[in-house]
Amino acid sequence: MREIIIIGAGLAGLSTAFHLGQNYQIFEKESEVGGLCRSFEINGFSFDYTGHLLHMRDPYTKDLVARLLPDAFASHSRRAYIYSQGTYTEYPFQANTYGLSKEVIKECIAGFVEAYLRFPNGSQSSESLSFEDWIYQTFGAGIAKHFMIPYNQKLWRTPLKEITADWVSWSVPRPTLDEILNGALGIKNRAFGYNPSFLYPKQGGICQLPQSFAKYIQNLHLKKKVVEISLQQRTVCFDDNTVYSYDALVSTMPLPSLLRIIRDLPEEIRKAGKTLRYLSVYDVNLGVKRPGISDKHWIYFPEPQFPFYRVGFPMNYAPNTVPKGCSSIYVEVSHLPEENIPASRLMEDVMAGLIQCGILRDDDEILASNIVDIPCAYVIHDRNRQEALKLIHPYLESQNIYAIGRYGRWEYSSMEQAILSGRDMALRLQRL
Q1: At 140, phi and psi to the nearest 5?
Q2: Side by side, which strands form the sheet with 310-312?
Q3: Secondary structure of 24-81 in the HEC alphabet?
Q4: What CATH number should be reported for the domain whose range is 4-38+207-276+381-431?
């Protein structure tokens, strides 16, 4: 009977163990399961590690989650908006320009028509385009200027020419010309994107999802951080000096971190790993002593005067996450790994921005606040990534190491995809 080691008890790792059923050991460096899909409480306010809303399209995951957590989730129709030029427009921007100035609407329509005439079936292959070129070819110059470029520059903090467009097909929708015109005139369009509706637990935060998997998991080891992996000996060493042998190893940890701890890694693979880039996010959480500070689920902020790119309101999809008569906010500010914003300055800038856009008032009483620095929040899809992964993943699999999930595959993906990646990995291991 083979020994399978799973590193990381986030959704992908838990799903792998759940679907294997036996012959595995799963290790997690934190004191609880969930990875970034966790929740915590401050002064009666419940927060997640930034916004974690469950979008499901696959019948398998829909059925699985319903079995794991029967009647635990509430379904919500998305109330997402963009705040720009002092007004709110519905998300996605490209199909909802009504309410902006006539000049801006004209620019957006004219630019889209020009792009539509040049590329009626959408942009050229997203595999070969930069993200910036994809934006212009898909939406035109006006939408690029007034939302797509400034928002994504703020989020990614990387020149958009350096980012590829191979990740956008499922996450950034292109409307039809008719829908562009409807959105400019205030005529209601269909819901766009992969997240027109979402699920969220009625009680206890998003941590309910990984914890539901954990109930079926055996051989779970918490507070066990991997410090070294030996390919030759097929062993994993942990920070408490314990050593485990494996026949197959499944890793959900960030791919660059995995490569750094493999002792006998070929130099070519090590160099490829050093080219992988990522983005970090400060998640600023606030509990406010005032009800109903917003009726929205989340808001995008493309303009540079606001330090944050997105603001969300957990109380609007789970009212019991706040004390009675209160509201909650999570605020996302991206930063490159080498950047460090002092906590006091970050909180001051966030508060000033929230007051400037009218979400907070000068006299609001803050009952809870904290900052979570998520060091590896988003993978940056650049051309180095494509070439590096062509070397890294095949080599690791030749050594019976399988990197899965968002950070193992080093890709932009959802919670549903993490669950499915664990299932697919388990099926694969069972066939070996």
Answers
A1: 90, 170
A2: 87-90, 80-84, 298-300, 310-312, 327-335, 278-288, 366-379
A3: EEEECCCCCCCCCCCEEEECCEEEECCCCCECCCCHHHHHHHHHHCCCCEEEEECCEE
A4: 3.50.50.60
Check the CA dihedral 196-201-204-206 and report its sign: negative
Would you list the domain boundaries of the chain? 4-38+207-276+381-431, 94-185
- Residue 130: Cβ within 10 Å count: 18
CA distance 161 to 182: 31
pLDDT of residue 120: 81
Secondary structure (DSSP) of 232-259: TTTEEEETTS-EEE-SEEEE-S-HHHHH
Beta bridge partners of 4: 24, 248
Predicted pLDDT of residue 126 = 60
Residue 221, H or E segment: strand 220-221
Residue 190 carries which DSSP code?
A: P
Mean pLDDT for the chain overall: 94
Pairing of strands 278-288, 366-379: antiparallel
Characterize 298-322 residue by residue with b for buried, 16 or more Cβ atoms within 10 angstroms of its Cβ, and e for exposed.
bbbbbbeebbbbbbbbbbbbbeebb
Between strands 45-48 and 243-245, the pairing is: unpaired
Q: Is the pLDDT of residue 190 over 70?
A: no
204: which 2 tokens?
A: 């206890």
Residue with tokens 């699985």: 64
Give the phi and the psi of residue 267 in degrees, each rounded to 5.
-60, -35
Tell me the two tokens of residue 367. Answer: 């009952």
Model confidence pLDDT, tens digit, residues 353-407? 999 999 999 999 999 999 999 999 999 999 899 999 999 999 999 999 999 999 9
pLDDT (tens digit, 9 = 90+) per residue, 143-169?
A: 999 999 999 999 999 999 999 998 886
Q: Note whether 95 and 180 are within 8 A (CB).
A: yes
Take residue 64 and report the two structure tokens written for it: 């699985």
pLDDT digits (tens, 9 = 90+) for 39-82: 999 999 999 999 999 999 999 999 999 999 999 999 999 999 99
* pLDDT in the model for residue 170: 61
CB 245 within 8 A of CB 234: yes
Closest CA to 250 of 427, 86, 380, 131: 427
